[in-house]
Structure prediction request, 587 residues.
Amino acid sequence: MDIFSILGLIGGLALFLYGMELMGDSLKKLAGGKLESILAKLTSNRFKGFLLGFIVTAIIQSSSATTVMLVGFVNSGIMKLGQTISIIMGANIGTTVTAWLLSTADIGEGASTVMKLFKPTSFTPILAGIGLLMTMMSKKDKNKTTGSMLIGFAILMFGMDAMSGAVEGLKDNQTFTNILTMFSNNPIMGIVVGMIFTAIIQSSSASVGVLQALSLTCIIPYSTAIPVILGQNIGTTITPIISSISGNTESRRVAMSCLYIKMIGVIVVCAVFYLLNYFIGFDFMSQRATAMNIAIVHTLFNIFSTVILLPFCSWIEKLAVKTIKSKEKEHKTDIFDTLDERFLTVPAFAVEKCKDLVGNMAMLSIEAYNEAIGLIGNFDADKFREIEEIEGSVDKYEDKTSTYLVKIAANQVSAQESKVVTELLHCIGDIERISDHALSIAKAGKEIDDKNLEFSSQAKEDISIITAAVTEILDMTSNALIKNDTELAKRVEPLEQVVDRLKRKIKRGHISRLRQGDCTMELGFILSDLLTNLGRISDHCSNIAACLIEMSHDSLETHEYLNNLKSGAVEEFSKMYEEYKAKYYIA
Prediction:
């Protein structure tokens, strides 16, 4: 094997790994976070967990990606440790699908014409061409992503073919033959080599693929292939272990469970298989293992270890708990733990978590407003402190969520995901300002109580009407945001115009009462502040609704939208405006 063969091997391996990553990333994008959302909502039924783990991993082609997601779920409190173990077992079998796809490279020249069509050299150029056309010519994200997936698969297969060609000279190399013989005579060394190589490239599917590529041109006996495959299954646990280092105790236990499942499986299989081989002597051990045979061995190992371990999920959980002890000052899971950086690899799922938090943030701001309105004329110090705490929580929501959204935007996201991220970033600031104005209203209530003031009966009635209108606009806006309901969002601006009208009428009424001596200047200042805050709350609701509507049309020209409404360009607007004007009428 000369320097050019080594360069060819390195290049082939690079293509192979890149193709696998491109294909996996594309498959995750096509899933759109739905698979991860299903995983997150899973019940504790171990058989459902096993099936789901198998399906998800078979689709995204990576057991490492699945287990890293599970680490993130447990770290953020979305799932419990016990729920993940059966999913990990299902993922172990799901990941063998890749080996079966790669085994098609083993179809020989003597095969029928129909069978040759399934050989990678026959169909991957076609897939690459289709994928290229889809990525270059299609305007839809889904089609572009499908094209990337096809190109990734083609690159993977070309890489495998390049590796096979590069190592072809090894079949007559005595040194390489001696190494294979060494592994055959010492299975433990084979397990260690397989484990180290897989840990380095962090993918059992990729390392099994490399072994399959070697088997295409080199004579690799079963006695060498089997221990290497067993070691590869242990080596793949390095990814969740690394991912769990920055997590809490429970997430580290998930990674440890993954390691225990693989290690116990390997120990049991080795004990049974090599004991039988010692007494019976399997004739096939000296025979050549083909790419198809390697896929079979890889699958049988994972099926066998799952069958024997699935009934003992609770024991594995207890073993992980005993191994990883709880810290005395363990960080308590809070709602912001769902903004886990592990989820950034699946942007669609990460965006969904942000949408949930923004919805919670909106509900907190509404709660602060409702509590604040109750303090006008009926002040309660405990309620006031509660509003201050809510406002502080909303500030924290804004800081954490906006920072995480920026991180999502820095990754490769689809046009739809980018649109949602932009929408949320625009809305977060308005939601936070609503809580600020709610606190200002609460302070107005405190001032009234401190100075022992009281509004006139007419002023109280006016305030009750405008606060009811603002309550409705807040509820309408939050529902439109959470449900992404643009039709509901269209009703916000007409009501906001009514709130502005109410503000003007109430101010005129106050001036009239002031002239008649029925009100004081001091109460007038408080009323003015109160109306200003109510008006600004409705303004922020208008901003959010306008953003939702414009983003549905792939635009952020909110001012243009609002100007069109106010100029009567939208006929519906006048009808809704008259409806709300009649509902919230002040003489």
Observations:
- The two ends are 96 Å apart (CA to CA).
